[in-house]
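@here heads up, posting the sequence + SMILES for the magnesium ion run so it's all in one place. Ping me if the SMILES looks off, I pulled it from an old spreadsheet.
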Amino acid sequence: MTPFIFGKLAGGINFANREKETKHLVQNFSSLINTILISPRRWGKSSLVAKAAMLAFKKDKKLRFCFLDMYNVRKEEDFLKIFAEELIKSTSTKWEDWVRNTKEFFKRALPKVNFSPDQNSEFSLGFDWEEIKRRPDEILNLAERIAVSKKIKLVLCIDEFQNIGFFAESTAFQKQLRANWQKHQHVSYCLYGSKRTMMMNVFASPDMPFYKFGDILFIEKIKEEDWIEFIQKRFSDTGKRINEKIAKEIISTCECHPYYVQQLSQMTWLRSGKICSMENYIEARTALIQQLDYLFTTITENLATTQVNFLEAVIDKVKQFSSKEILKRYELGTSANVLRIKDALIAKELLDSKGGEFYLLDPVYHIWLNNVYFKKDNLI
Ligand SMILES: Nc1ncnc2c1ncn2[C@@H]1O[C@H](COP(=O)(O)OP(=O)(O)OP(=O)(O)O)[C@@H](O)[C@H]1O
Ligand SMILES: [Mg+2]
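bot reply: prediction finished. Complex structure tokens:
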């Protein structure tokens, strides 16, 4: 058993701080306030929602949660199908109820139920799409009907919600969703996703249906002081020690990025004896960068030259991207070009800006570009 986890939800003793956000979410869940959560990938949205859901349930046993993930959903039909399936599953306790509930809650759509009783998760609904297209309301209001009938409060947590933007007639579909969902009295929606531009398009444009649908929260990274405490505690829980200086090195290399802090802590922990040395950390850091070398090489090879040049300028902390001298030095083309490059890199989730300054979203990619690709520093 290693004391750090990454690539899985962080809960229990693996969950660092986030007290403020957790409290906020628990409050929204309990009072059925719709919430929109936005943060870059791997910053801890899913872990936070899961933790807040658990706490809210502890406080109020009438609350039920239904989790959907739209990561591979690209069309309306897929969405409505998993939406109905997960709602039935999450509000029934036994598989025998699935069929009964499906019959009870669908009057018009009458889906075909396929399931295998020995495998708990095997349950699917077959709909007549022609009929659903004409009148999707029965599915869209399913949550409210279930909540009323079962006398529960239901929170629907939908991950990667921005994918709704890919649907063929997305705005029209969003309009239908919003028109139905906003009438619900016993259901609230927690919609989250990592593509900020797409999420903002859906939720923050006044001419879009989901404008002002709920409370928008931007999740921040976890603070340095919370990480120090967390890392030292996880080491000491397992009979090892790490001093503050090395813990700070880990955090600073990872720029507080939750996934990476856990990963690099783990790699350092694995190399450390009872007392962690600076060498243990340096070895772990080198190993981390080497491990990602192939991935970063592939990402970089798939970028246009001007995009790579732009990243180099960001690494060099350039501020005036449209100045003649910078355009020339980094071969960025015209200043109109710079805007396009920037948008493309943001859409690829490689770049973001804060307080008017650009930065690379992936701190280890930054280090790799700097040291391995551009060979600016020789830290490895
Ligand atoms: N509160 C936390 N405390 C400690 N580690 C965390 C916390 N939140 C996230 N992490 C770390 O970050 C990783 C990613 O977290 P999570 O899957 O919750 O993020 P996400 O934003 O939902 O990611 P994705 O964009 O991939 O869906 C976790 O596996 C864990 O290593
Ligand atoms: Mg997630």
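MO: Residues 45-46, 159 surround magnesium ion (ligand 2) (CB under 6 Å).
MO: One more: The chain has a mean pLDDT of 91.
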